[in-house]
Specification:
Blueprint lengths: L10 H14 L1 H7 L2 H9 L4 H4 L10 H11 L7 E8 L2 E11 L6 H4 L6 H16 L4 H21 L15 E3 L13 H8 L13 E4 L2 H13 L2 H13 L8 H15 L7 H9 L10 H12 L2 H25 L5 H13 L13 H7 L10 H20 L8 H8 L3
Parallel strand pairs: 2-4
Antiparallel strand pairs: 1-2, 3-4
Helix pairs in contact: 1-13, 5-11, 7-8, 7-12, 8-10, 8-11, 15-16
């Protein structure tokens, strides 16, 4: 990551290196402090606990905030998880899925209640962060307790992991027009989906659009919870959830606050070194596809793998396959000829993945993946929002109505990391 760009490097390598430079530039991070995040929050109307009496509840809408968070690059799974993925009953097509939210702390902790010592560590994390952003300590404790109590109730509305193992129960297909809504939820799922895809002009959502409501009971309970909860509490909670994933991308004090929480909860004694945190941010030793994981993999393959070694392994496995077909299979006496023919067919169709996918060495394909993405050497926070938006648009545009065969090389990439 610290090497200078050479003539043999792919254009996308420079994007990853610029993002890495922004990550290790601690002087710039200290200069910016939490201001980049504060500025974004103010665009949303501000974090009430910080804004105090200046915050106006009449300007706040839970679902407008959710849509804006997604549009700006902060994610969209704080109240519901909105995603696009393979249809469980037809893997050649893609479907919109609406599911229960992800939480800021694991459900298993939160359902123990506010007084639990681990939940208290989480509460201190919230309060310390709010104070860092300018809140008065007494306001932070009072207001964020209400937000945490909301999140605890939210945790109780979600299903436990052991209750979500039956995929059939999570498959409840309907259409956007027919999907049930309740008080507190978007008045129209069709319109909500349209707004989620507003940056993807090629996608047209109508009343007949197929969607899967993975957790109908959760949505009904969520609507009731939102209806009875004060807007200020909801806004405080959503602002906190927007900030939390970005604490490692802000200044040293923000990272210290996060580290105190990790030490108290998980026993992690020392913060991850900057260089290690930053190479993980790029995609090394990190299986999040919404970063530079394909660039990182390409760089690693070019540096450390010898093509002739892969060639030898392919020849070896081809030899084993051939020996199985010509020597082993004919000698098996518990298979009749009909079954042996099926075994041969299965052997011929069985794919193999050795060392790396050849696409990692294909400049055109790797660069094409990141075409249109712009990265700065001095704006880690801004880069992260851009990267999220870039991959969100990519997924929405290329996955929603695409057949999987149109994404062969991406699928091969994923298989190397799963």
């Amino acid at each position: 990551m610290e090497a200078e760009q050479s003539e043999d490097d792919f254009d996308s390598y420079k994007l990853a290196r610029d993002h890495y430079k922004a990550c290790i530039n601690e002087e710039k991070l200290e200069e910016l402090g939490v201001e980049p995040m504060q500025r974004k929050l103010k665009e949303f109307g501000g974090w009430p606990v910080v804004e105090g009496d200046k915050w106006k509840s009449e300007n706040f809408s839970v679902w407008d905030w959710t849509l804006r968070m997604n549009a700006e690059g902060f994610g969209k799974d704080h109240l519901i998880d909105f995603d696009v993925g393979p249809d469980d009953k037809n893997s050649t097509s893609r479907i919109i899925e609406i599911d229960q939210a992800d939480l800021g702390m694991s459900r298993e902790y939160l359902i123990k209640g506010f007084e639990d010592k681990d939940v208290q560590h989480y509460f201190r994390y919230m309060v310390d962060t709010a104070i860092l952003f300018g809140a008065k300590p007494e306001d932070a404790k009072r207001e964020l307790k209400d937000s945490l109590l909301f999140e605890i109730e939210l945790a109780f509305t979600t299903a436990a992991r052991e209750d979500r193992r039956n995929s059939t129960q999570l498959y409840n297909p309907t259409t956007a027009g027919e999907a049930k809504t309740h008080e507190g939820l978007p008045s129209s799922w069709t319109e909500f989906c349209r707004k989620m895809f507003k940056d993807s002009t090629a996608i047209k959502i109508d009343e007949d659009e197929k969607i899967n409501i993975a957790s109908p009971e959760y949505l009904e309970n969520l609507g009731k919870l939102i209806t009875k909860t004060d807007k200020r509490t909801l806004a405080n909670y959503l602002a906190w959830r927007a900030i939390k994933p970005f604490m490692t991308l802000l200044n040293e004090e923000a990272r210290k606050i996060r580290q105190r929480y990790r030490k108290a909860l998980l026993g992690i004694q020392v913060e991850t070194p900057t260089w290690k945190r930053c190479v993980e941010e790029i995609g090394f030793n990190n299986f999040d596809s919404s970063n530079f994981i394909y660039v990182a993999s390409s760089m690693y393959v070019k540096k450390y793998f010898k093509p002739e070694a892969k060639k030898e392994m392919i020849e070896l496995t081809d030899y084993i396959r051939k020996a199985f077909e010509d020597i082993v299979l004919p000698s098996i006496d518990w298979m009749d000829e009909k079954v042996k023919e099926k075994a041969k067919k299965k052997l011929a169709e069985m794919d193999q993945f050795i060392a790396y996918s050849d696409e990692f060495l294909n400049k055109e394909k790797i660069d094409e993946l990141y075409q249109g993405l712009e990265i700065s050497e001095n704006d880690l926070f801004g880069n992260s929002l851009k990267i999220y938006r870039f991959w969100r648009t990519f997924i929405y545009n290329r996955y929603l109505r695409a057949h999987l065969k149109c994404l062969t090389y991406l699928i091969k990439f994923y298989r190397h990391f799963i």
